[in-house]
Amino acid sequence: MPKIIGIDYGTVRIGLAETDDLKMMAFGLDTVATKDIFRYLNEYLQNNTVELFVVGEPKQMDGSFSESEIHIQEFIKKLDSTYHIPIQRFDERFTSKMAFNTMLASGISKKKRQNKGLIDKISATIILQEYLNTL
Fold first, then answer.
1. Bigger pLDDT: 98 or 125?
2. Which run of H or E residues covers position 77?
């Protein structure tokens, strides 16, 4: 069954999440170096069908776009032209803070909480789950 992929874009790392087959739950997939994302997605798409990419949309408190939006727009253009899979944007405000709080609440050690890649993967999962909750 086709999946939906959640993407928390960063200029260094990209957090990824995927849905279950029923598209009810989001699960952390991986954290990938930004320079390797298309190689990773090529391999993923060889074994999985994706019907939608949900890309985080970073906004300031006043609703304006953050400075990283220009990089995300470049990424989205390449994502669209490479795979021709629909792309949906979703507000990602507070996801990094929520990810960190999730790690605290789950009892993850201080050393593991410093792993920014884990925060990116959890952030992608939160973005995707919040998107699914709106359906």
1. 125
2. helix 69-83
In one letter, which amino acid is 134?
T
What is the rounded CA–CA span in Å between residue 98 and residue 94? 6
User: What length is written for the chain?
Assistant: 135
Q: Can you give the pTM of this predicted structure?
A: 0.85
**Tokens encoding 39:** 């190689």
Domain boundaries, the chain: 3-133
Segment 102-116 shows an average pLDDT of 58
Residue-wise pLDDT for 80-99, tens only, equals 999 999 999 998 766 666 65
Rounded-to-integer distance, Cα 52 and Cα 127, Å: 13
CATH of domain 3-133: 3.30.420.140
